[in-house]
Amino acid sequence: MAIIRIESRKNKADLSRFIEEGIARRLRLEGAFNVLKDYIQDTIEIKAQVMFICANLMLESSKNRQPKTICEPVSALRLPASTT
Description:
The protein is mostly helical. It is 61% helix and 0% strand.
């Protein structure tokens, strides 16, 4: 049986890059302040807890929103309590 080892440090870096690229591709933030982009990036990283599927859900729920309303879905999402 093969064992796959995942280093959380590398996974966090990959997730961070995934979110950054997702913000650039999916969210309409042209001309928005970097503070808004940083807030969205940081909030999704914290709430996703290194789970790509959750980060993707947060990005999708914010797609097609104007910058003034984009923080609502990002802030509102909750994840189930960790079982670890």
